[in-house]
Amino acid sequence: MKMAKKLLAVVLTGVMAVSMLTGCAGISSRRVADELQGMLKAVNDKATVKAADDDLANKAAKVAKDEHGALKTGDTLKNDVKTELTKGNKLGDSYIWFACFTTKDVNKTVKAQNIAKAMMTTDNQGAKIDTNKAINKDAVKVGNKSGDDIKAGNNFELSMKEFKVGDANYVMIVVTCKAQVKAAG
User: Fold this and answer.
1) Torsion over CA of 86, 90, 91 and 97, rounded to 10 degrees?
2) Which of 16, 63, 129, 130 is most buried (CB neighbours < 10 A)?
3) Percent of the chain that is helix, strand, coil (3-state, to 5)
4) pLDDT at res. 90
5) Where are the domains of the chain?
6) Are 162 and 57 in contact (CB under 8 A)?
7) Own/partner pairs, 34-37, CB within 8 angstroms, 24+ separation
8) Residue 83: what are its φ and ψ, rounded to 5°?
9) Contact assessment for residue 169 and residue 104, using Cβ atoms and an 8 Å cutoff
10) What stretch of H or E contains 36?
């Protein structure tokens, strides 16, 4: 009986270790996702943000450096990230937003605020999730609907990857959300 309990404990420990290493988001990503969810709930009370693995952010971070190892900026960075993340139209039914910034003196709340700025806009009527800020806004489709006929859904996924450029530490955050057809009326 003692041997069976020990064996069970070893097996359980192994299963837990493997589950932690296979595609699960890190604690830091989950904390930023929680912060972002709170911010998005202010404009969409049904919004949820799930921390996904770092695959998308890792792909975006790989194209964030130029051939000399310097960080790309502006439209060059935006276009290269868009090209990388939309290869093969894998995310053709999802909006994609991203933010890339230095991590010096940046906590989870500031990280969430930076990605929220890349996703939201404010006008006279208040804040809203802005699909026009998505890097692939013109390519998103739901069936045969696109443009003003669709909107961001309620379920967002956050992918986050820290990387270095020279001596500086940066973070790449990518958020995706499946589009949905707007309700009539």
Assistant:
1) -40
2) 129
3) 40, 30, 30
4) 76
5) 26-181
6) no
7) 35/108, 35/109, 35/111, 35/112, 36/112, 36/115, 36/116, 36/156, 36/158, 36/175, 37/156
8) -60, -45
9) yes
10) helix 27-41
71 exposed, middle or buried (CB, 10 Å; 0-12, 13-18, 19+)? middle
Is residue 125 within 8 A of residue 19, CB to CB? The reply is no
Give the per-residue pLDDT at 23.
Answer: 44
| Global model pTM greater than 0.70 | yes
In this prediction, residue 22 carries a pLDDT of 36
Q: Within the chain, what is the greatest distance between any pair of CA atoms?
A: 70
**The two structure tokens encoding residue 60:** 């975006």
pLDDT for 18: 36
Candidates 122, 100, 88; CA nearest to 172 is 100
pLDDT at 123: 78
- CATH code, residues 26-181: 3.40.33
Residues of the chain predicted below pLDDT 70: 1-25, 185
Q: Length of the chain, please?
A: 185
**Structure tokens, 90:** 């894998």
CA–CA separation, 46 and 66 (whole Å): 39
- For the record, the structure tokens of 94 come out as 């999802």
Pairing of strands 150-165, 48-51: parallel
